[in-house]
Design brief:
Layout lengths: L14 H20 L6 H11 L6 H8 L3 H13 L3 E5 L7 E5 L1 H21 L5 H15 L2
Antiparallel strand pairs: 1-2
Helix pairs in contact: 1-5, 2-5, 3-4
Length: 145
Amino acid sequence: MDHYTPESFTLTQSVGFAVNKARNLLAAELDAALKDLGITTQQMGILMSMRGGKTQTPFELSKLLGIDTGLMTRMLDKLEARDLLQRTRSLEDRRVVNLTLTKAGEKVAAELPHIAPVVLNKRLRKFTKSEFQEFRRLLNKFLED
C-alpha cells in the first residue's frame, strides 16, 4: 500500500521529515546532557553497546548502530584518544580488531543509564503508558525490512 503519491507528498507532512526532526531534537538534548562527560550521543551508543556486551568489534558496532565504517573509525579514534576504549588485534585473525572499554570508559559508561532516561522521559512525558508502548511498537515496525 502506498501512503504517498507525487500529488499528495509534502516535505513537512512526511514521516521521514518527522523522524529526522525527532532524531535531531533528541540528539541535541542528549548531547547537552552528556556535555559534562565529554561525549556525544553517538559515542554514548558505542560505550553502551560495548558495556552491554552486545559488540566487540568495529564492524559489529557499525551494524548495530547504523553508522558507516569510516565514521565509526573516526569516533573510535576519538574515544581511544580519550582513553575510554582500547583496540587490540585478534590472535585468531589479525584482520579483526577487538574493542574493550578501559577503566575510564567503564566509569563513563556506568553514568549513561542515569543520564539518557532523564532526557527520554522528559521528551515522552505527555505519553501514556499505552501510547509509549504503541509508539515503540510502531517505530520497531517502521524499522523492519
